[in-house]
Amino acid sequence: MQPIIKELVQPTLESFVRQPVFLHLETTQGAYASQQSHSLTAGAYIRNAKIEFIQGKITGEGPFRVGLKMELGWVYAEGLTHWEMDQQNRLLLSGHDQDGKLAVALQLSHQPF
After folding, report:
1. Distance between CA atoms of 95 and 104, rounded to whole angstroms?
2. pLDDT tens across 44-72, in order?
3. Full strand arrangement of the beta sheet holding 53-59
4. Which of 59, 60, 56 is nearest to 108 (CA)?
5. What's the rounded Cα separation, in Å, for the pair 96 and 88?
6. Considering only CA atoms, which of 45, 27, 51, 46 is closest in space to residue 110?
7. Partners of 25 in the β-ladder
8. Burial of 10 from C-beta contacts in 10 A (0-12 / 13-18 / 19+)
């Protein structure tokens, strides 16, 4: 994966607009991230949710935020630092902490993950 360059990610996001796509969205402070003994462990995970969005936008100066506007709501992830478009034409976005551990992932695909 490469560090995010907004000018490259934005048109890639737009290539998925108004098409049914599969979403993987994950946040974690658990197994992948360092924990302090008194901190609350929180996370969210959704895989292969079929969505269609009408607008995709990347914002921020790094770490970045991505919002996917759907007809009846939003999908949103922040803390993103890296990206790639893999050989299966899946957009993979991730955010890593200062130790390189995964904190957030947002992925889009035309096929189930």
Report:
1. 5
2. 999 999 999 999 999 999 999 999 999 99
3. 53-59, 64-70, 73-80
4. 56
5. 23
6. 51
7. 46, 106
8. middle
